[in-house]
Predict the 3D structure of the following.
Amino acid sequence: MEERADEENGRVRRMTWEEGRELLDRTAQKHLGISGEEFIERWDKGEYDDPDDRTKNPPGVMELAMILPFVR
Amino acid sequence: MWVVVGTNGYSPGQTHALVPNLGHPVKMRGSIGLNLVTRTWYRVVRGEDDRSLWKVAVIAYSHRLETADEKEIVSYHWHPGEGSKVVHPHMHLGAGIGADLGMLDKTHIPTGEIRLEELIHFTIHELEAEPQREDWPEILSE
């Protein structure tokens, strides 16, 4: 069973699910001009292959790939 | 305000992600006008022996310095096990440098591990970012 989280601990708090999705959406818009949802669809189809290969992908795909597991 | 993404931020056995400013660029005051975008992934692990305290082990990071209009100047990455073939610490140079980089902006330039506090020290000491407190060297060295 997952431990319940403190919502806030000093100056660090847990990001809400909505804030996490907003972060993904904002990052996808900034780097790719698409929504977070569309990024997830493309990611799941394997469109990005190596996310940090900048000969194929724009900068930012790696960052999105690293955020993704936390906001699904 | 720092936030942890998706987890409680302290449970052992999980990977946690720490980001400042809800993931928005941190605008650094100073003559140049820089943004810092940083994400740190870590795990909480026991020390080497039974008497050791728990400690934070950084397992991946992405630190990016941008221009004020959010063009990448330089990014420091380390992301083993995140789907990329590049598993060593490296840096990227970006369009925010303001020069023709040729193929350099597609490459992964090897580095050692870059700690966030080193990058912040660099921005204050050499890029004239304004620290928010006078004791910043002590804070960064803690």
Observations:
- The first helix of chain A runs from residue 17 to 32.
